[in-house]
Please model this.
Amino acid sequence: MSDTAQATASLNGAAILSKDLSIYYGDFQAVRDVNLDIQTNRITAIIGPSGCGKSTVLRAFNRMNELIPSVNTKGEVLFRGENIYAPDVDPVEVRRRIGMVFQKPNPFPKSVYENVAWGARINGHKGNLDELVHSSLKAAALWDEVKDKLDQSGLSLSGGQQQRLCIARTIAVRPDIILMDEPCSALDPIATLRIEELMRDLAKEFTIIIVTHNMQQAARVSDRTAFFSLSEDGKRAGMLMEYGDTKTMFTRPEKKITEDYITGRFG
Model:
């Protein structure tokens, strides 16, 4: 069996799979030996106390960590049967296939229309841009609110609308996976609910991985949950402690450290 065929077989239906993933910031090891299989068309929540490497792991799934000069990544991340850290893999193409929505809404200083169309245009979209903008905004549950404001600046929208605009911008390039780094932390409860409802709808078509500090949110929206915490050997590296079905983890976790975190005894 070829290396590619072996990698494909090892995915076992996962959308993306990390194998012995370790990440360093200079000499400091941020996360250690993460083995995590993310299931297709599911929402996976990554939870854990501050400083345990949740966002670092998330950014490893589309090589965003490489934008930080001191970062060194070891291990493998398999996507579509290929290690995205292989020397011949283009990180720009990785980020096109694995999109990201950030903690703080970051629309471009362009019109609502151009925010959605821009990424598709620079990626050589050959179809009808008007149709793409309409379908992307509709998929992001934003079309009805902005259909008469397409020429207005995306920065003129409310915070919740801006975040949904960023989601529309992400899905316009048709990724396989959407990474979300605490996408609701800057939003009010009503806007948060809209984003959570949107995630459930998007999971019918996309695989979603979300980092969240909000235990209620993780319990509400995710199918599977990965709990990270710091190693207890004094080295302070983030490690995957438990991973499984969300309902099971929140009602019958296997490890006491998981139960303590979920119930608010630490973290």
